[in-house]
Amino acid sequence: MKRKRLSLALLIWLLLSGVGVTALFVSVGKHLAETFNTDARILHRVLSQRMEQQEAVLNAVYALERQGTGTAALGTYLNTLLRPYPQVVAVERCTPLGCQVLGSPTERPPRLAAALSAASAVGWPDDGGPLYALSRGNVRVWVDARRLTGALDSEAAPLSYTLFRPQTDTAIVAHTTTENWGSASTTLHVEKILGTALQPFPIRISRPVAWGSWPWLGSVLWTLLTAGLSLLVWQLLEARRAAQRALLDERVRAGGVVEAASEAIVALDEDHRVTLANPAARAALFHPLPPGTDLRAVTTFQATLLQAPFDAASFWDSPQPTSLPEGLTLLRTGAAGQEAVQVEGSLAPLRGAGGELRGRVLILREVGPLQRRMLEHLEDGERRVREHEEMLAHVSRLSTLGEMGAGLAHELNQPLTAIVSYGQAAARLLDEPEPDLERVRHAVGASVTQARRAAQIITRLRQWVKRTPSQSRPTDLSQATENVLTLCRADLNRLGVRVVTSYADTPLVRADPVQLEQIILNLLRNALDAVQDTPDPTIGLSIALDKQGWILSVRDNGPGIAAEVSTRLFTPFTTSKAGGLGLGLSLSQTLAQGMGGDLSGRNADVGGAVFTLSLPRLMMEAASD
Length: 625
Ligand code: ADP
Description:
By secondary structure, this protein is α+β, with helices and mostly antiparallel strands. Helices cover 48% and strands 23% of the residues. It has 5 domains: 26-212, no CATH class; 215-253; 264-379, Beta-Lactamase; 387-468, Signal transduction histidine kinase, dimerisation/phosphotransfer (DHp) domain (Helix Hairpins, Orthogonal Bundle); 473-624, 2-Layer Sandwich (Heat Shock Protein 90).
């Protein structure tokens, strides 16, 4: 490409300089030829005039001779007459006996080869020299051809010329200019015939043209000038090319950005006609948006009932960048009919370098999809947290299950033993001769009650282990605490733990009873663990009302919370126990927070640990809903 541009510049230079130099040479050549032609014409005219003068002398002497003028008188006359004509060197009167020179001749005339006729003629001497004779009757006028042009030579521009005898190549006289012959570049020629009656001699005129006559300096200057011009043109071409490439790159980059943008972008001219629209714009407006489309005709904005009416005309013609009012809807008609989508965006004027309006650019964004995506994101996050919590609860229940094994066996053992003994008693009573049916009914009823209790314990155990989604309902906090105490009764008894309870009246909360019992169970089991080596182990359970709601406190007189775990009690897997998982408290806190409450723990001033579960108070009216 670069080579091509360089060749173009070179070609331009060659053409310009070639044409210019040729024109210069042609013009100078023409001028030289014209000057030469003028000089040659002057020479021809002067020579012709001189020839005529000679003929006039001849005619005058002939006339005098015919009138019978005497030789002496003729001689005197001639001496005066011939003074202005130096080329006429002698005049003779010839008779058949011989020729007699009249007056005082400049030169002695030579002899003629042949006799001349009586009529007018030109005679050439035998020696072929520069003298020749014009004759009429018996008068001869001798002309020296060398003197014909003597005066001319000095005044005329350098010209060479040769005078010939008619119809021959014999030169009468030749004059060669000395000027320029050595260094002549060329020679200009012209042939003419002298314009007289007696002497129509051919004359060849020539002029050497010196090398220095040509416009060398001008040509060199012109060539240099055109070289400079061509260089300038080449540089301009290069600069233009670079600018074009930069512009193209810029355009491609800008185009790419616009194409890739997820916002709808439409560029308009001053009359709101589309000049460029990206795919997002076509998709948003349900329109192919070919260039030239009046965007106002295919875009309908509508304000909602809550907004001020949308003034489309002033929006489209605004001289300043203008944003669409928040919550504005765009009406569009697709295959599925008309729909309204919420959009946000702006219209900005595009101005030229002088600040004049060149067009506008509209940028639109659908708000709906963005909001929907954010909502989905949030729901997704919440769902994951919920799943995580349920999974933690499940793990916690499984671990607790092992520890509860013994207690459960004991719990189930009691009703089962009772059922067996009630059954045996009923059988014994029936074996009596007069069975006391009332007692039998009582024994059977009692065994049914015990069987139900066993079933209840098993059901609770299954619920405990199973992952059940939370089901909030009005729940009595003191009842939940009692249920947990029942579950742990065996362990409490085994360790000889004293349990002190103090409950406020009907402490109602909205909670999932199973989850609530799990929290309390965790706290109770931790307290149990804590008081294992304490003399007079005591656990206090109290429910009281405070301004945040219901507060369940679980206190113990154990060693208190160990310093190394106190700062991250509620972080999963924080444990100070050999077989502990460290999930109980974290799970319990999560569950409590899920119910709108919280769980915290600290060491009591009097020793031991206090854990408090706070839950929002549920009013009686709300509970009855
Ligand atoms: P785990 O009981 O499996 O260790 P938890 O989350 O229930 O898991 O308890 C975490 C830790 O908190 C325990 O290991 C213990 O160090 C401390 N902790 C909990 N309750 C008490 C308490 N009543 N007295 C002293 N320390 C306690």
